[in-house]
Amino acid sequence: MRGMQNPPDLRPDLARARISDTRRAGQPTIGMVSLGCPKALVDSERILTRLRAEGYGISPDYSGADAVIVNTCGFLDSAKAESLEAIGEALSENGRVIVTGCLGAEPDYITGAHPRVLAVTGPHQYEQVLDAVHRAVPPSPDPFVDLLPAAGVKLTPRHYSYLKISEGCNHACKFCIIPDMRGRLSSRPHRAVLREAEKLVEAGVRELLVISQDTSAYGTDWKDREAKFPILDLARDLGSLGAWVRLHYVYPYPHVRELIPLMAGASGSGAGGILPYLDIPFQHAHPDTLKRMARPAAAARTLDEIAAWRADCPEIVLRSTFIVGYPGETEAEFQTLLDWLDEAQLDRVGCFQYEDVKGARSNALPDHVAPEVKQDRWDRFMAKAQAISEAKLAAKVGRQMQVLVDEVDDEAATCRTMADAPEIDGNLFIDEGFETLKPGDLVTVEVEEAGEYDLWGRLIASPRV
């Protein structure tokens, strides 16, 4: 039996690009390294789609590329270091490197470490990236050969796709510099989002992962909007397409309650819809800590909201991320967070140890927490979260549920339930009778065994087509 399980420190901001070799003889070819969050992954997909439309090939390795684009992350200092390392590796392996993404907002920081890069552009500056590619590797299209896939170039498996509905954020959290890098909230038009989603589903996508910095605020930046909360209409329309629709980064505004009935309708069917799954960045539970973060200090009311969501949709799965060791966090404040987690009983939990980020206002706060204390609190927090996860998964043994097949190898089929987002949540493994399955299949299983983060199941129904 396969013994895989997700480690408790799996970074929820990590996106893994998957690139297939699509080159023709003599074709100018570009490589891509995509770091950071799924929102950056979507930016990478858009850049590569534009390049493919101009006749460029996409290389899955350094040696086959005429130049390499590195899409960077600049959210945390550790992410910046990872980005610089990736740039250095690309320079060493290829030598011709174009840098874009969030860290590109600090060009001197990049060129100070790597003066040989060909160009540096900031986040979602698609035209500037294309201009840099044109200068480095002139296009040479063949209109009879270079056909662009209907869904564009995807860096995820073809059966699921990230769907970015907005850029930027209007929050002013002291630990975050995203608004400085990506600007204020700017929502894509409803019709444009829906048209992209329709094309993806027509191309075979079974799951749409809705992403933004603040999904529940979608459309509230439109001055002449008809609906007070446009995310509700968008969710209804996306839920009608026949694919699973998973909502990420949803702030717990009161109108989120109006999304829950849509999830209740999808939880018992296999025909798609808004999944009973909410990814909500709570960050902490103590009101004083939340105040120092410049976040709404309403942890008690949040528990009431969670209870209301579960009353309307008992199957709902709640994922969140938290920060421990935030400046000024006392042992009593941390204990409040542990007690809150005990009461909230969240299904999926990630946790970061606080670290300073250049430009963040939290850097100037007094009473920074010692590294060893942060590590101790992280260990205690994750131990509690792991125990909650293990108990919740154990309760699923014996149940039948529909799962989406992600990968099949010689040992097992790796699948996900409605409760599992790709890369950041758990898996369900089928290790008998899986040989005819393929990625993208929707199958029914009976859960036979549970671990701390993963499930194992027995196939009881053939794939749904």
UniProtKB/TrEMBL annotation:
InterPro entries (alphabetical): Elp3/MiaA/NifB-like_rSAM, Methylthiotransferase, Methylthiotransferase_N, Methylthiotransferase_N_sf, NA-bd_OB-fold, Ribosomal_uS12_MeSTrfase_RimO, rSAM, rSAM_horseshoe
Binding site for [4Fe-4S] cluster 2: 169, 173, 176
Residues bound to [4Fe-4S] cluster 1: 37, 73, 102
Binding note for cofactor: Binds 2 [4Fe-4S] clusters. One cluster is coordinated with 3 cysteines and an exchangeable S-adenosyl-L-methionine.
Gene Ontology biological process: tRNA modification
Cofactor(s) this protein requires: [4Fe-4S] cluster
Domain of life: Bacteria
EC class of the enzyme, as a word: transferase
EC number(s) given by UniProt: 2.8.4.4
GO CC terms in record: cytosol; ribosome
Record keyword 4Fe-4S present: yes
Limits of the Radical SAM core domain: 155-391
Alphabetical list of HAMAP family matching this protein: MTTase_RimO
Function field: Catalyzes the methylthiolation of an aspartic acid residue of ribosomal protein uS12.
Protein name: Ribosomal protein uS12 methylthiotransferase RimO
Organism: Salipiger marinus
Lineage, broadest ranks: Bacteria, Pseudomonadati, Pseudomonadota, Alphaproteobacteria, Rhodobacterales
Gene transcribed to yield this protein: rimO
